[in-house]
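Q: Fold this one first, please.
A: Sequence and structure below.
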Amino acid sequence: MANQSQLGFQDAASPIMEELLYFHDHALMAVLLISTLVLYIITTMLTTKLTNTNATDAQEIEMVWTILPAIILIAIALPSLRILYLMDEISDPHLTIKAIGHQWYWSYEYTNYENLTFDSYMIPTQDLLPGQFRLLEVDNRMVIPMESPIRVLISADDVLHSWAIPSMGIKTDAIPGRLNQTSFIASRPGSYYGQCSEICGANHSFMPIVVEATLLSCFQDWSLSMLET
């Protein structure tokens, strides 16, 4: 959950998000070093009184400012490609859930269970209980077992939506007539909040997403109770 006036990312709740945080720090360090070097060169050029008429035809300098950026780009591109492949890899999920975007709510279908489907609406401000978050809490959360590979099939019923949970590093478009998929593993129990990240109409800001990760035994009890109702 994000804090007030927070500037950085949320704490990672999945292995993919941990990799994204590491890559962010790696890329930010490269940007810092490049900015420092460029600022030093500019400062030196503005303050020195020395001149060199041969600087316009220096092959060594041209080789350095060509090879060095290429090395930096490779050092950034390789970890980025690795994470992209990790995000696309889906192998033997323990549970598959279909999330369908509507104007303006989400519906969930647990494909491993028959008749386990429900709609998830935002709780109005006047109905919130103490401790619940305004504009983020829903009446029916998507409950999953922790430390289990979860596959989510994402689509939309009317217009473009986007199913996103920042703390898990998930953002997948929900497109009418098309089925996208993503996967994640919740590293620890808790409630993780997200929102539709594609402008989908007047109430775009009022269709939040809440994923609740629990122990496997608690998830089984919840699924049985949902099937009985």
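Q: Good. Now the second chain.
A: Here it is, same layout.
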Amino acid sequence: MPTAIAADSVGLVSPRVAQFTAPLELACGRTLTDYQLIYETYGTLNPERSNAVLICHALSGHHHAAGYHSLDERKPGWWDSCIGPGKPIDTSRFFVVSLNNLGGCNGSTGPNTVDPATGKPYGADFPMVTVEDWVNSQARLADRLGIEQWAAVIGGSLGGMQALHWSIGYPERIRHCLAIASAPRLSAQNIAFNEVARQAILSDTDYPEGIPKRGLMLARMVGHITYLSDDAMGTKFGRDLKNDKLNYDFNSVEFQVESYLRYQGEEFSGRFDANTYLLMTKALDYFELGDLAKASADFCLMSFTTDWRFSPARSREIVQALVAARKNVSYVEIDAPQGHDAFLLPIPRYLQALHNYLKRIEV
């Protein structure tokens, strides 16, 4: 529970729901006849409707990016360090929109919501969704909000892929694209990690009829290892023992890093939907950056030196493609020991670079 809400917080916020009845054709060939998107907004849309910023979330993210839902909430939204008055995504200047994507498990239509055709939750029958599908649904949300053009679309990791697709899928509707710790496509190694995580879920005997808690726990443990750097794990845990002695037992938790991974897996398996995890990892695998010649936005790419999941080399690939396409692009590589998770953390140089770029955007 926050003892007091800081002056640079967006404060108490309430999610909103947009219901859509126009069918949405998906890349997989199926159609959602109707669906809903849950979202939050921070700041005020100006009379010209020119100051709107879209936040696209990563694999396990959601709409609650900043502020608090109640005074009892222990932690603020997942990107609270970046969103608020005077922060890099300054809500005294920008009207910020953050949503939960289709296929999510936090209020938007997804596997744990009811299929109108059957009257039962979609579950494993929810259609496959892609980055393109998400951007198309986000464009409809923008229409609903009366936003013809985003001042910027911003995202980290899988969110960065969405921002990049906005720039070529709707080039006239985005002025600035900020892709952080992202990539033009997944490497074979990344697809392999995702497949191991999916197989942990699919091989759980409680899937698909029940809740595959153990499978989801293992999937998160595998994923979490890739989000941290070797240095970050070494500094945080080293080879420290949990109880200062070895038990010579496969089932016991002996090292602190084992305890940490089990805690992360246990916590995640209690709040996230297994089918959503399967969908999100497949959307990552399917993403392939299109023809940047179509883009008209200005670009900002950011990467982190110890991120081996989406390494700086992957961001530089995008930068080189943008330069070849004669687009305006800024790039910063931030020295940070935290690995891929750095894009979620309040690293001073990162926040300053983000602030410096965004303050140049005219609204």
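Q: Anything worth noting on the second one?
A: The chain has a mean pLDDT of 96.
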